[in-house]
Amino acid sequence: MNADREPFPPETLGVAIAAFLGWKVDRRPGSHADAVMRLAPEGHEQSLLSAVKEAIARSDAVRLSDEVWAGTEYGNRLKAALHAQQPDLTDEAVGALASRLAYLQFN
Predict the structure, then answer these.
(1) Do 89 and 82 form a contact (C-beta atoms < 8 A)?
(2) Are 24 and 17 in contact (CB under 8 A)?
């Protein structure tokens, strides 16, 4: 996170990432900024939204080999790659990001 922004607890960021993407709510990943705004501490709405977008951008930048996508265990390999890249993220955040990347890969 940028030094000029207050870092958010991993749980807060994880819930915000899942809410932004609509994980476990929508059939496809979305961009629900309003959901993040409702979760943010007062006065930190834009900072939390920026932190969510930064985590998504970092997940988009992860290099995934064809082997990650092979077979039925791709979800576990994808989550492991994302967790290695952003170890401070919660399982909920990693799951939401992995679901988004899988959706983008296969749709």
Answers:
(1) yes
(2) no
> Is the whole-model pTM more than 0.70?
yes
Helix axes 91-106 and 45-61, enclosed angle (nearest 10)? 50
pLDDT in tens, 64-77: 888 888 888 889 99
* List of residues 6+ apart from 84 with CB closer than 8 A: none
- Spatial separation of the C-alpha atoms in residues 20 and 63, rounded to whole Å: 23
- How many alpha carbons lie under 13 Å from residue 45 in its C-beta half-sphere? 9
Dist CA 47 CA 37 (whole Å): 10
